[in-house]
Amino acid sequence: PKSTLDEFALFGGEPAFGHKLHVGQPNIGDRAHFLDRVNRIFDSRWLTNNGEAVQELERRLGEHLGVKHVIAVCNATVGLEIAIRAMPMEGEVIVPSLTFVATAHALQWQQITPVFCDVDPVTHNLDPEQVRRLITPRTTGILGVHLWGRPCDVDALQAIADEHRLHLLFDAAHAFGCSHQGRMVGNFGRAEVFSFHATKFFNTFEGGAITTNDDALAAKIRLMTNFGFAGYDNVVHVGTNGKMNEVCAAMGLTSLQALDGFIATNRTNADTYAERLARIPGMKLCRYDTTERNNFQYVVVEYMPQPGGPSRDDLIRLLWAENVMARKYFWPGCHRMEPYRTLFPTVGERLPQTEAIADRLMILPTGTGMNTASIHALCDLLELAVAQGPALSARLGAL
Ligand code: T4K
Predict the structure, then answer these.
(1) For 5-26+258-326+365-398, which CATH superfamily applies?
(2) Has the ipTM of the complex gone over 0.95?
(3) Atom 44 of ligand 1 has which residue's CA nearest to it?
(4) Closest Cα to atom 5 of ligand 1
């Protein structure tokens, strides 16, 4: 390991890693299994539109989640748009700002006002008390996000939704394979939407799924995902093209086969990070509730610099030079991005936790592309950087 500042790549040393370590580097299951399925797709000459692989994936996901309806979609953003419209949500919808911008865009895209709500500093999820205060006569729904795969306070949100007759939808993009009080995410609210994007620990290249236990809602979502077609030449509803294709479904079936292994790797990685980061002053790893099922797909560090020590952005700059592509998800918060920054210039005043958390977060790589040795090497860099504190800050200032 490096032991002096001069050895950091930023100051002329060799990068610690010979290739880039990405947050969100895809996990890839059994290639032979995938290629065999792709061959079968070619043989059948059925490439999309509710093919066999999509049907099989929906069935298996339904079994895995214990949910009645699974509608596979082309990505979670379109999935959210469809679910929002199927409910239907209108007017104003309460949503966190500490999320990937797709959550807010899915509302704004359909002329629904996202009403940004602050989050709990410990869970990083919607603060139910503020949700309650933000309800107006125009509010039609709550869109919660299970950030990092840690479920929202679904019981409190459901109680508010029931009391005020609001639609409750969850952006479960991060939460495939996670449970809340022993029940799999996918069963909460009126519907939930998963992302199976390449960067998710379970991927279908691009893709996602809408899940619900509501028969009528499921039927409507299914129609809307396929242009509103109820049968050949028979359109009964407005709709869009939200379909998943067969190759993506084949990838999903391949990923599903490897799921337990992916989670086990993430868990081992998380334990290694926990052990190492505990020794570094100012670094707090967000932990998962070990009495529940988790996917451990995000290694989320809240970093609070020691006096005179390197800032979060200093550390990220240092890591990038070493080929560790750490990320600042979801800095700076949706409300500080366009069009929301211009539309709601003062909304940040009620989002103190969101802004503080967004300035502290550092997401580190995990998944099957990482192992115990690479995590130790990565943590050696962080340990040295923080130990060098003011000397490092001075060197960075001089660059
Ligand atoms: N809701 C939430 C809470 C979400 O986090 C997301 C997506 C959505 C909704 C919408 O889901 P989708 O419509 O995408 O299904 C990435 C993903 O594109 C996005 O799916 C994900 N969240 C978000 C957290 O991350 P970017 O803009 O950060 O992507 P990019 O290109 O910077 O890639 C992310 C990292 O992954 C990089 O470090 C590179 C690495 N990477 C990426 C790809 C595609 C790889 O190593 N290999 C790859 O193939 O959004």
Answers:
(1) Aspartate Aminotransferase, domain 1 (3.90.1150.10)
(2) yes
(3) 198
(4) 100
